[in-house]
């Protein structure tokens, strides 16, 4: 850290206490940058700066700042103009408040810096501010000017140093309007339970174990081509099926997370799935024999009932015939009696 070049020198204003400090970058980028080249011969492609009025290339020393007005007019602004601005934060990180850390919206977080004590006289007030932040469990909100504009910052303790996070102004953070789904969705308790199980299975991770695999792959490609070798080819990822059932996806995710950690498959309760036909229950041999016996008894009983019914039907038919015969005889007998009563002349 001692060899890192400071990007800003000034002081922290803590009430009437002034702490001389140097601001250094707390982060660095490891991204691989590429140059633009002419694909036919590998020549570098460069951008040259031309003046539109004189139509000639200009040097960096001839370039200044200008503000374009609404009508297209350019208003020149010099470094001297900006240096004369009545900003108390031009060379001072002015602490304006102390607030709980969780009151800061992470969306406001910007670049991070370390604040290093500048010289031996700054050691005592620097340590005082650091220990006060530790004991209060709060962060300091400050205003400072950097690269031509006033900014908002948050001071907190990192190890034995004071770090400052640049913050976006509240009006620079967009409201999340139109981002969330605009349809009504019902999340069931069982789905939440499985989501909780997945979160517990994944658990925590040591950020030190994470690394940029893409950058490493690019470095391998560059090294292979520089050595005249064939660049390594990554296997194509397996195509995943379309997930239509959220519960099934959650269950599979929990099992996969468990297996990746070498643990037993997670015990999850599956929801009953609809089937088009009911599957007949399998029965044992004894139950099958009992059913056959019962069927035989039922058949025998049915046969007896049929025989009895037939006999009853025959008896009824005979009775019917007797009744019909009796009625016929009765009708014939009065007819004969009537004939014998005729008078003689």
Sum this structure up briefly.
Keywords: DNA damage, DNA recombination, DNA repair, DNA-binding. This protein is an alpha+beta fold and 345 residues long. The protein is built from 6 helices and 11 strands.
Radius of gyration: 48 Å
Structural class: alpha+beta
Strand order of the largest sheet: 1-2-8-11-10-9-7
Number of strands: 11
Number of helices: 6
GO molecular function, one term: double-stranded DNA binding
Region (Disordered): 254-345
Subunit structure: Homodimer. Interacts with LigD.
Biased composition (Low complexity): 296-328
Describe what you observe in this structure.
The protein has helices at residues 79-83, 123-136, 189-202, 213-226, 246-260, 285-340; strands at 8-14, 17-25, 50-51, 56-57, 65-68, 74-77, 92-100, 109-117, 138-146, 149-158, 161-167. The chain is α+β, with helices and mostly antiparallel strands and 345 residues long. Among the domains are: 1-28 and 73-174, Ku70, Chain: A, Domain 2 (Beta Barrel), CATH 2.40.290.10; 186-206 and 245-269, no CATH class. The strands form three sheets. The chain has a seven-stranded mixed beta barrel. It has a two-stranded antiparallel ribbon with strand order 3-4. α3 (189-202) packs parallel to α5. It starts with 7 loop residues before the first strand and ends in a 5-residue tail after the last helix. The relative contact order is 0.08.
Topology:
Layout: E1 8-14, E2 17-25, E3 50-51, E4 56-57, E5 65-68, E6 74-77, H1 79-83, E7 92-100, E8 109-117, H2 123-136, E9 138-146, E10 149-158, E11 161-167, H3 189-202, H4 213-226, H5 246-260, H6 285-340
Parallel strand pairs: 1-7
Antiparallel strand pairs: 1-2, 2-8, 3-4, 5-6, 7-9, 8-11, 9-10, 10-11
Helix pairs in contact: 3-5
């Amino acid at each position: 850290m001692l060899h890192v070049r400071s990007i800003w020198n000034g002081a922290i204003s803590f009430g009437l206490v002034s702490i001389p400090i140097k601001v250094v970058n707390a982060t660095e980028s490891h991204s691989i940058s590429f140059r633009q080249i002419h694909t036919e011969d590998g020549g570098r492609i460069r951008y040259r700066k031309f003046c539109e009025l004189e139509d000639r290339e200009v040097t960096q020393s001839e370039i200044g700042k200008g503000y374009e007005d609404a009508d297209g007019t350019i208003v020149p602004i010099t470094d001297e103009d900006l240096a004369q601005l009545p900003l108390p934060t031009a060379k001072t990180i002015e602490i304006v408040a102390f607030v709980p850390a969780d009151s800061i919206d992470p969306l406001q977080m910007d670049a991070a810096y370390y604040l290093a004590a500048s010289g031996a006289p700054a050691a005592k007030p620097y340590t005082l501010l650091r220990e006060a932040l530790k004991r209060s469990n709060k962060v300091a909100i400050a205003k400072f000017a950097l690269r031509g504009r006033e900014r908002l910052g948050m001071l907190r303790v990192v190890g034995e140093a004071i770090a400052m996070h640049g913050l976006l102004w509240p009006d620079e953070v967009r409201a999340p309007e139109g981002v969330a789904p605009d349809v009504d969705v019902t999340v069931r308790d069982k789905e939440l339970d499985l989501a909780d199980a997945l979160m517990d299975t994944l658990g925590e991770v040591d950020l030190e174990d994470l690394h940029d695999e893409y950058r490493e792959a690019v470095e391998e490609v560059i090294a292979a081509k520089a050595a005249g070798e064939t660049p390594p080819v990554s296997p194509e990822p397996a195509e995943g099926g379309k997930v239509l059932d959220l519960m099934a996806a959650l269950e599979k995710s929990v099992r996969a997370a468990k297996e990746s950690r070498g643990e037993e498959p997670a015990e999850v309760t599956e929801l009953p799935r609809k089937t088009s036909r009911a599957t007949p229950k399998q029965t044992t041999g004894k139950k099958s024999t009992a059913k056959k016996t019962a069927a035989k008894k039922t058949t025998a009983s049915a046969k007896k009932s049929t025989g009895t019914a037939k006999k009853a039907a025959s008896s009824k038919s005979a009775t019917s015939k007797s009744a019909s015969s009796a009625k016929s005889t009765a009708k014939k007998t009065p007819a004969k009696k009537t004939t014998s009563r005729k008078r003689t002349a």
